């Protein structure tokens, strides 16, 4: 039985015609019910005839990811652990920001793979290894879950404003489903997110990067995290297989709109990449493209080989860059009390499960989990 969340609008039109014998406008009605009104039951689609709804129910379903845990930080950051249809677990995070007028808006961080093959050494998801790619239904289903949680109908002023593909997984390695998701996000009769409100974050791999720029459906963020090839190889060994100089020269010809800039993410790891010598190397890199830098202070996970940088080093790093004309924005680390960094909640839950398994069946626990 087909999950209708897995169909783009043109695919839904073709399906509606082929399977229901209904015209194109019927597909648009169904699309609006699914993505705008968040219908999960065909019976609620009251502007569609009963025989058509019954026919749909016999051939299709609407399945959202199942919420298995919600954790809310003191700063409002909210993390969801979701179970997919095959039992796989992923995370999505809602991050609040308040306007000067005190109006709260949200950014959602989406996962696009179960686990990740890239093995970045600071990342809990990287430690888990790769399980599988997520489908469009699973990627966009995260947004439906979040909107339901927020009570965001999108009919008036939407509360969920920005989408970032910065959760579990490397988007360029699940490019087909990420592209289909971007196309669907764009639909003004559906979720209606403008490309200016969507960012796709990659650890900087060659595959599909050019195509992402050419599609114009999202802004680009690149996880840099090191200012030279040698350090990048230590911190992000798999991403660094594509050498830093080749990454930078590709970014120099990346398609950008007039006011668009590439965002570089730089995670400050205490004593590893947070010295002024590293800042000095960063300046020409960031200035070689239309770029800006997001500095993120590392929030150590349990058992992590890295430490948080000192406040003084962070401020000195930021100042060094600003003094040399680099736009460097220090991002506050949110949700520290709920393990909001990518993969941390899933890793913690797997560890709890492992402890339970150890207590009941000693000797077999290592086969039960990849965490
Ligand atoms: S940081 Fe991103 S690309 Fe690297 S292992 Fe984690 S999820 Fe994968």
Automatic annotation (TrEMBL):
Enumerate the residues binding [4Fe-4S] cluster.
116, 120, 123
| Pfam families per record | Radical_SAM, RlmN_N
The record's Gene Ontology biological-process terms are:
rRNA base methylation; tRNA methylation
A GO term from the CC aspect: cytoplasm
What GO terms are given for molecular function? Answer: 4 iron, 4 sulfur cluster binding; metal ion binding; rRNA (adenine(2503)-C2-)-methyltransferase activity; rRNA binding; tRNA (adenine(37)-C2)-methyltransferase activity; tRNA binding
Q: Which domain of life is it from?
A: Bacteria
Query: Which InterPro entries does the entry mention?
Result: Aldolase_TIM, Methyltransferase_A, RlmN_N, RNA_MTrfase_RlmN, rRNA_lsu_MTrfase_RlmN/Cfr, rSAM, rSAM_sf
Annotated coiled-coil segments of the chain: none
The UniProt record lists the EC number as 2.1.1.192
| Top-level EC class | transferase
Q: Which residues bind S-adenosyl-L-methionine?
A: 169-170, 201, 223-225, 299
Which reaction equation describes what this protein catalyses?
adenosine(2503) in 23S rRNA + 2 reduced [2Fe-2S]-[ferredoxin] + 2 S-adenosyl-L-methionine = 2-methyladenosine(2503) in 23S rRNA + 5'-deoxyadenosine + L-methionine + 2 oxidized [2Fe-2S]-[ferredoxin] + S-adenosyl-L-homocysteine; adenosine(37) in tRNA + 2 reduced [2Fe-2S]-[ferredoxin] + 2 S-adenosyl-L-methionine = 2-methyladenosine(37) in tRNA + 5'-deoxyadenosine + L-methionine + 2 oxidized [2Fe-2S]-[ferredoxin] + S-adenosyl-L-homocysteine
The answer, when asked if Nucleus is one of the entry's keywords, is no
Give the protein's biological function: Specifically methylates position 2 of adenine 2503 in 23S rRNA and position 2 of adenine 37 in tRNAs.
Q: What is the protein named?
A: Probable dual-specificity RNA methyltransferase RlmN
Annotated organism of origin:
Desulfovibrio intestinalis
Q: Which gene encodes it?
A: rlmN
């Amino acid at each position: 039985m087909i999950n209708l969340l897995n169909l783009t609008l043109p695919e839904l039109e073709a399906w509606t015609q082929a399977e229901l014998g209904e015209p194109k406008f019927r597909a648009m009605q169904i699309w609006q019910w699914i993505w705008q009104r968040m219908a999960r039951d065909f019976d609620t689609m009251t502007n569609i005839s009963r025989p058509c709804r019954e026919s749909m129910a016999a051939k299709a379903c609407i399945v959202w990811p199942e919420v298995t845990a919600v954790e809310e930080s003191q700063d409002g950051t909210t993390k969801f652990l979701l179970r997919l249809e095959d039992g796989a677990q992923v995370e999505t995070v809602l991050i609040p920001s308040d306007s000067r007028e005190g109006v709260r808006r949200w950014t959602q961080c989406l996962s696009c793979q179960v686990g990740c093959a890239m093995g970045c050494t600071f990342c809990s998801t990287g430690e888990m290894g790769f399980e599988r790619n997520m489908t469009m239904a699973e990627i966009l289903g995260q947004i439906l879950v979040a909107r339901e949680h927020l009570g965001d109908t999108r009919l008036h002023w939407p509360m969920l404003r920005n989408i970032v593909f910065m959760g579990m997984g490397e988007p360029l390695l699940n490019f087909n489903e990420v592209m289909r998701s971007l196309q669907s996000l764009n639909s003004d009769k559906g979720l209606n997110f403008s490309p200016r409100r969507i960012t796709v974050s990659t650890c900087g791999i060659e595959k599909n990067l050019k195509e992402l720029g050419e599609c114009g459906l999202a802004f680009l963020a690149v996880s840099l995290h090191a200012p030279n090839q040698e350090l990048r190889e230590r911190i992000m060994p798999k991403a660094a297989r594509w050498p830093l100089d080749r990454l930078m020269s590709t970014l120099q010809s990346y398609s950008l709109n007039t006011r668009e800039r590439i965002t570089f993410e730089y995670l400050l790891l205490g004593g590893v990449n947070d010295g002024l010598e590293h800042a000095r190397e960063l300046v020409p890199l960031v200035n070689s493209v239309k770029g800006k830098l997001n500095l993120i202070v590392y929030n150590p996970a349990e058992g992590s080989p890295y430490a948080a940088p000192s406040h003084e080093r962070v401020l000195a790093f930021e100042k060094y860059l600003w003094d040399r004309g680099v736009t460097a924005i220090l991002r506050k680390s949110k949700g520290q009390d709920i393990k909001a960094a990518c993969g941390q909640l899933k890793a913690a839950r797997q560890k709890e499960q492992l402890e339970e398994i150890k207590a009941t069946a000693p000797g077999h626990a290592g086969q039960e989990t990849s965490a």
